[in-house]
Structure formats: C-alpha cells, structure tokens
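the two lines:
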Amino acid sequence: MKSESALRVIFAAFFRAGLRAKRSRAFVLLSAVPVLLMIIVRVVDAKESGDFFTKVMLSLYFQLLVPVLALFFGSSTVNEELDNKTLVYLTTVPVRRRAVLLGKYLAAFLLAALLVAGGFLLCFLAAALDRLDDAAAWGELGLFLGAALLALFCYSTLFTALGAFMKKSILLGLFFVFGWESIVQYFPGVTQKFTVIHWIKSLLPIPAGEGGFLIFQLQPSPPLPSVLVPLAAGLLFLCIAVFIFERKEYILSDNA
Amino acid sequence: MNPVLKAEKLSKWYGNILGISDIHLEVESGITGLLGPNGAGKSTFLKIAAGQLKPKIGRLTVFGEPVWGNPRLFRRVGFCPEHDSAYNEMSGGAFILLLARLHGFAGAAAAERVEKALATVGLLENRERPIKAYSFGMRQRLRLASAILHEPELLLLDEPLRGVDPLWRIRIMQMIKDYGRQGRTVIVSSHILPEIEAMTSEIVLIHQGKIFAKGDIHSIRGLIDSHPHQVSIRCPRPRHLAERLIAGDFVSGIEFAADGGGLTVRTNQRDLFFSALMPLAAEAGNEIAEITSPDDNLQAVFDYLIGK
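prediction for all of em together
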C-alpha cells in the first residue's frame, strides 16, 4: 500500500478514536479551566478582562496547557501502542512504519490543536465580547493562536521522538516541561535560547513587568528566527522520531 | 522445492534471558505445530517470523526474503499474536476495517473482507460493539480475524485457541485444517499436546529455546508413551478399584489419596490402561467422579524426554 494512502487511513482511524478517547475528554475539562477563569473575570471586572486574557494565555496556556497537551498526545503516539501491546497490528500490515508514525502523530496533533484553538476562542470571546468588531483584537487572537500551534508542533514532535526512543517517556517529559523549560527560559544570555518557550514568548506581546523570574528577564529574539527555530526544531524532532521508529525493535512481551 | 520459512542458526535473547538458541528449521506448506511448554521460545520464534523482533544471530527468511523491515511481505503473511491486546475504544468491525484498508482493500472490497473474516470467527453480529465489551474468547477470535482477513499464504498463529470456548475451539481447529488443505502454510503454537495433535501430525518440539525434536507426532508420541504416566482417579472405593487394576500388567504402581477418596496409578501403557479402566470400574460398581493426569502436561512430557 502506498505510504500516503496508509497515512490517510491511519490518520482518519486514530483521529476518530481520539475523539472518543477518555484522555481527550479529560483534556477538554482541563482546557475549560482558563475559559471559566476568563468568564469569572469578565463578570467581576469587564475592564480588566483584556489584560487578564494575555496573562491567562501566557501563564496557563503557553507555560502549562500547551506543553502538557503536547507531552501526553505526542508521547502517546508510540507509547500507547507499547503499553496496550497493539503495535503488532500496525507493524504486520504491508505499510511502512513511517506512515504509521506520521499518521498517528498527525491525528494526535490535530486533536491537541483543536483543544487549544477551542479554548483560545472561548477565552477570547469572554475577554473581547464588547469589541468583536475590532480587527486588532482578532489579530491578537491570531498571533496567540499561531504561536500556540507552533509551540504545540515543536513540543509534540520532541515528545513523539522521546516516546519512540523510550518506553516511559512521560517522566522525562514532565521534567523537561516543569524543570528545564520553566527555569532555563529565564537564564541570562544565550542560555534561554535553548528552551522552546523562549522563541514562542519572543513572538508574543509580553506586558511590562511580566516574564521575569528573580532578577532575570526574557531577552526576546527577533520575530523571524522566533518562527523558524521552533519550526526547524519540530521538523528535526519529527525526522528523528521516524528514524527511531523505523529501526527500533519494540519488545511487547514481559521478556524485556 | 524452496521452503516457505527457513531459519538458520537463529538465536535471540533479551538481556541475559534466552529466547531461542541456534535454531535451524525449514517449514513447507501445510500445518506445522510448534509445541513446547510456556517460556520454551515458541512466541519468540513466531515474533521473529512475523518481523516483530530482530534475530541477534542467524537469519530467518519467509518466501526467500528477510522479514525484518520488509512490510511488503505482509501481503502474504498473517500473524495472530498471543497477548490479549486490542484497540478497546474501537468496535470490532472498525478494527478489522482499519486493517483491511491497510492491506490495500478499499470500498466494497474492504467491506466484503471484513464481513468474511468476522463471519469466519463468529463475530459478525458483534461487529458494532466496542472491543472493550468483548469477552476474552471473543477478543481472541477477533485477533484471528485480523490474521486471516487478507487470506495470507503463510499464517502464524501464537496460541490461537487460548481462552476460546469448546465449540469455537473445534471450529477454529477445523478452519486451520482447511487452510492447510488449501495448500497454504500454517505454523500454530500451543503448549497443549492434544490441541496440536487434533490439527496436524507434523510438529516441532521446542524446549528451553532449542528445537528438541521435529517430525511426525506419532514417533514423538511413541517416545512419550514409553515413559510412565500418572493418572489420578477420584472414586468412593479406591481400594476396591486398586485390586482390580493391579491384576492387569499395565500398572506399575498405585498410591492412595490421604483423604481415602481416590488413588493415583502409574502406568507404562496409557492407552491400554484407559481402555481397561472403565469396564473395571463398572464391574466393581465403583462410580468414578474424576480422572486427571497430574503429569499430562507438556512440561512433564519434556521432563520425561530430557530425562529429568
């Protein structure tokens, strides 16, 4: 079977399965938290809701929800097959392994992207209900959404590669998200450029006084590299994931 | 004639645990039974044959081609894994349809394949139910459907009868025999001798990762039958039955159960013993409640054969 057709078949099957999965439902609930917060702020103090929107996006979405969604959806691309011992069904059909990985990855990415986009839109509507005819507000939403999808792509490909390489990748992923990304982004000089969040935050309008940790501050990079670096890193991680998945022997029995 | 499957010096181990060691094997068309106790290396061998594992040493070819990293081969090969795994959120029909489409069938052809495979294993009426609602036996039959849906020339079945109810056990064994009669190749593993015996006379005995014997089951049966067997019998008057049994020259020893409700007989002529047992019990008016063979499992047979 041609790889493109196999990729489409796998993508469609796992996207449909993902829509019904318990994990997706749990993440819908988690994504509803910022929306609820926005609605509360809107009801209590409508004037503050614009600033609060930016804060919610930065602190809840970019620092928490996006990397966590990417971690669970990305690492599950391969890990779920190993944990459930179902990989055997996808590797005993006349289909190249790369089509299996890419089809599953795209399904997971689209599910996570829909969750993020849905949450963003609802938060935005709650924050900008009285200025829906303001093109600048929609532009800001587009900027946040684009940056979030870029972050999701970069993180999820990294965690897909990690999941293809090792069985219990979630722990290492959590360490990366809550350790490395949370702390190193505030290191001075070039060190902070070794985090994904540095490039993503460089694209966003950071309110004055935000983005600091102890005495260190975000030192934004220019916009073009801030788009290209996560994009290139994501593509590289995806290639690494395919390379590993095509060659690695996965032992599904208890003998391992 | 070229063998369908050929293994040369095939070895595999997991860390310091031996899977299989130095296996040389050629399999022709027809049914071959892979027989061995749990942990003997049957599954490891089948997983290498199905391209799931890489050999550490040696090589295995199917239809003259290496299996690892060769997905095209799976147009001609079907594999039913041993472990109880499935996409539980999918329905049985959706799962088989996914595999049919990955085998290259589209539209009506895919639907026809799904229907045929599910009908063969008796799951057509349950096709819309999610797999998580299936019983263990139904999931086992679904795995079998996944292996046969593209009507492969080589079918690798790892313990396909495990957990299947008696009626379907017979039907599946019949299906496997039909496959063999059609000139296809089936390699079926089990740790239960009578299961294999009911499907084929061509067997490979595998033990501790090595091929212990290969050939016609009757010659191996002969080896097995030359060793004493134990048969435990539960009955109300065991001493009375023992008197009758000891008179025959097919009994080499008798032990009575501590609770006084049974006895264990050792015999070198199992067939003769069983043909004599029922008339003797009836003659004595001694109703037999249960007959079990404590050593009638493959591990015991292997222990006998390797002289433990």
